[in-house]
Amino acid sequence: MNGLSGFQGYINIEEENVCQLTGQGLPFSRDIDWKGYKIDDRTGDKEEAERVGDTKSIPLWFIISGSKKLIAERPIKANIYKEEDCFTVENEPLDIYAVGFTLNEAIENFMDHVVEFWEHYKALPDNKAGKFAKNLKNKYLTSFIEEN
Amino acid sequence: MQLDRSDIISVLPSKGFKKKEKRKHTYFYHVYNGKESGITTFVSRGTKYKSYGNELLGVMKKQLKLSTLPQLKDLIECPMTTDKYNKILKESGFL
């Protein structure tokens, strides 16, 4: 069993391609059967024709990075892909694309990035933010509250 | 395709990105006309991330709102100027 402190639960790599996720940020245990994608060398896109498994999504209620804990107003959907050598965890509305060479690492990185962007946008004055940044700032500040 | 992390770190500030060092990652925030655009990327510390291959570059390409890996290579290896990159962001509605 691999520990994952930021997740307040664990991700159990049972076999090469099967993970079981359990954690405080999750409503239930879930088995994930990883298959994978092939990356197009020219565009960097995932080749649909090579896709033999689906994207897996998990809801996250809590985001924990270091000593910081954010509570999601509504669960944050983390889409997880298994690529050739690494995992990608992403949430397009929050514009977060995290990677890791293990699923644990990718989720930890995802949480690091959420906390970094939440802190960054919280401190960013509106007059220093362009249109897209203001939109992201609004999403971050309305999506999470900090646990004291 | 592969790019060195050190090249990414050294080049992005010259392409309009503000660097911010954190414990596990180095973040880059794009600035245009004195305002943050909301375009960001990051590189991670650790020996596993010394060289960025297709998977990591594919993610970075999405973060930087580029369409292809060669575009990202051009941005990092310098043929793509700051103005050209900003033009791409304008055309795709991010600026």
How are the SSEs ordered, and which strands pair?
The complex is a heterodimer of chains A (148) and B (95).
Chain A: E1 2-4, E2 9-13, E3 18-23, E4 30-33, E5 56-65, E6 68-82, E7 87-91, E8 96-100, H1 103-123, H2 131-143, E9 144-146
Antiparallel strand pairs in A: 1-2, 2-3, 3-4, 5-6, 6-7, 6-9, 7-8
Chain B: E1 3-4, H1 5-11, E2 17-21, E3 25-32, E4 35-44, E5 51-52, H2 54-63, H3 69-76, H4 82-91
Antiparallel strand pairs in B: 1-5, 2-3, 3-4
Key traits:
heterodimer, A: 148 residues, alpha+beta, five-stranded antiparallel β-sheet, four-stranded antiparallel β-sheet, 2 helices, 38% strand, globular, disordered N terminus, B: 95 residues, three-stranded antiparallel β-sheet, two-stranded antiparallel sheet, 4 helices, 5 strands
Q: What report would you give on this structure?
A:
Chain A has 148 residues and is of the alpha+beta class. Chain A has one domain. Chain A contains 2 helices and 9 strands; from the N terminus they run ββββββββααβ. In chain A, α1 packs across α2. Chain A is globular, with a radius of gyration of 16 Å. Chain B is of the alpha+beta class. Helix content of chain B is 37%, strand content 28%. Chain B is built from 4 helices and 5 strands, in the order βαββββααα. In chain B, a hairpin with a 2-residue loop joins β3 and β4. Chains A and B meet through β8, α1 and α2 of A and β3, β4, α2 and α3 of B.
Radius of gyration of chain B over all CA atoms, rounded: 12 Å
Compute the gyration radius of chain A: what is it? 16 Å
| Low-confidence sequence ranges of chain A | 1-41, 46-54
Report the major sheet of chain A.
5 strands, antiparallel
Element pattern of chain A in H and E: EEEEEEEEHHE
Strand order of the largest sheet of chain B: 2-3-4
Average of the residue pLDDT scores of chain A: 71
Strand content of the residues of chain A, in percent?
Answer: 35-45%
**Strand pairing plus helix content of chain B: what structural class?**
alpha+beta
Query: What is the number of independent domains of chain A?
Result: 1
Would you tell me the overall average pLDDT of chain B? 94
Query: What is the helical fraction of chain A, as a range of percent?
Result: 10-25%
